[in-house]
Structure to design on (304 residues):
C-alpha cells in the first residue's frame, strides 16, 4: 500500500475511502421543513437514526474483512470526516456506535463536504419551480438563487482533496504500518457524487448521468494492487450500472482495479476519445510504406 512520491519518501495510502450519505432526514419526508428550519439544522428521523446504525455495522463488516473474529483486533483503523450539518453529525454518531474506540483514530468536521447551498430558508413551491428549471438548464452548472451550483461544490471538494493529500503525505492518517487505514466521509448525495467526479476525472456529461445515493447508502473506493482506487474492488458491475455509470466509465473502473498507476498515460484513455471526432489510430509500423514510396516516386518523376 506504499507508493513513492518524493526522493527517499514513501506514503501509505488508505486501503479504502468510503463515501456515506446521511440517513433519512425530516427534510426528506417533508420539504416544508426547509421553510422554517435552516438546512444545516434539519435532523434525522427515527428511521434515519436506525439507518445510520445499520450503515455502521455494514462499514465495520467491510473494513474488518468479514466482521470481528479472533484475528480482527489491530487489523484496521478508521478516520472520519463529516459535514457540519446536524443530519450528517447524527449519522456519524450512529455509524460510530459500531466501532470499538481503539479502532477510531480520529474524526474531523469538514465544512467543504457540506451540502450544496440552496439559499437560506426554502419556500416549498418556489423550490419546486427552481428545481424544474434546473432540470432544463443542467444539474451541474445551474446555480440556485442565493445558493450554489454543483460546479461551486466541485471547487470546494477539489480544495478538500488537496488538504486530504497533505494529511496522507504527512502521515496524519496512518498511525501504524501494521494496520490498514480506512477513510469514511459522511456527507451528502450531490457532494459525494462530485467527490467521485473529481477523483475519477469524470466529465460534466458523465456526472449528469449519475443517480443519487440512497439515505445511508455507502460506496467503497478501494485501493487496487497497482495503486489506483476503484469502485469495482468492492462493488459489482451491475451496481455501477444502477448508479448510472456508462460503459466507458465502468471500463475505466475495471482498468483501475488492476492496472499499475505508472502506466496510466499509456494504457488508460481517460475518456480522451470523447473530446475528438473521427479519432483514428496511427498505422502500425511498416504499414503505409508502399503508399509513401509511390508518393516519393511521383515527386521524382515530376522533377525529371
Amino acid at each position: 500500500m506504499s507508493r513513492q512520491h518524493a526522493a527517499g519518501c514513501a506514503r501509505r495510502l488508505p486501503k479504502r475511502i468510503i463515501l456515506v450519505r446521511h440517513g433519512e432526514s425530516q427534510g426528506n419526508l417533508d420539504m416544508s421543513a426547509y421553510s422554517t428550519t435552516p438546512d444545516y439544522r434539519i435532523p434525522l428521523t427515527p428511521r434515519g437514526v436506525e439507518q445510520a446504525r445499520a450503515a455502521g455495522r455494514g462499514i465495520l463488516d467491510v473494513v474488518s474483512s468479514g466482521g470481528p473474529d479472533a484475528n480482527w483486533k489491530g487489523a484496521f483503523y478508521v478516520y472520519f470526516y463529516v459535514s457540519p450539518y446536524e443530519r450528517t453529525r447524527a449519522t456519524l454518531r450512529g455509524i460510530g456506535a459500531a466501532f470499538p474506540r481503539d479502532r477510531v483514530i480520529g474524526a474531523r468536521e469538514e465544512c467543504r463536504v457540506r451540502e450544496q447551498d440552496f439559499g437560506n430558508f426554502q419556500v416549498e413551491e418556489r423550490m419546486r419551480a427552481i428545481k424544474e428549471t434546473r432540470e432544463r438548464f443542467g444539474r451541474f452548472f445551474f446555480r440556485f438563487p442565493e445558493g450554489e451550483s454543483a460546479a461551486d461544490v466541485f471547487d470546494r471538494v477539489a480544495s478538500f482533496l488537496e488538504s486530504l493529500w497533505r494529511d496522507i503525505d504527512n502521515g496524519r492518517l496512518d498511525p501504524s504500518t501494521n494496520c490498514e487505514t480506512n477513510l469514511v466521509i459522511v456527507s451528502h448525495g450531490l457532494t459525494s457524487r462530485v467527490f467521485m467526479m473529481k477523483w475519477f476525472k469524470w466529465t460534466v456529461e458523465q456526472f449528469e448521468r449519475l443517480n443519487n445515493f440512497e439515505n445511508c447508502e455507502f460506496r467503497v473506493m478501494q485501493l487496487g494492487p497497482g495503486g489506483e482506487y476503484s469502485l469495482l474492488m468492492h462493488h459489482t458491475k451491475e451496481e455501477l450500472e444502477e448508479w448510472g455509470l456508462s460503459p466507458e466509465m465502468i471500463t475505466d473502473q475495471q482498468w483501475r482495479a488492476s492496472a499499475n498507476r505508472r502506466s496510466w498515460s499509456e494504457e488508460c484513455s481517460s475518456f480522451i476519445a470523447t473530446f475528438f471526432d473521427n479519432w483514428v489510430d496511427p498505422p502500425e509500423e511498416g504499414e503505409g510504406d508502399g503508399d509513401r514510396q509511390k508518393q516519393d516516386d511521383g515527386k521524382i518523376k515530376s522533377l525529371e
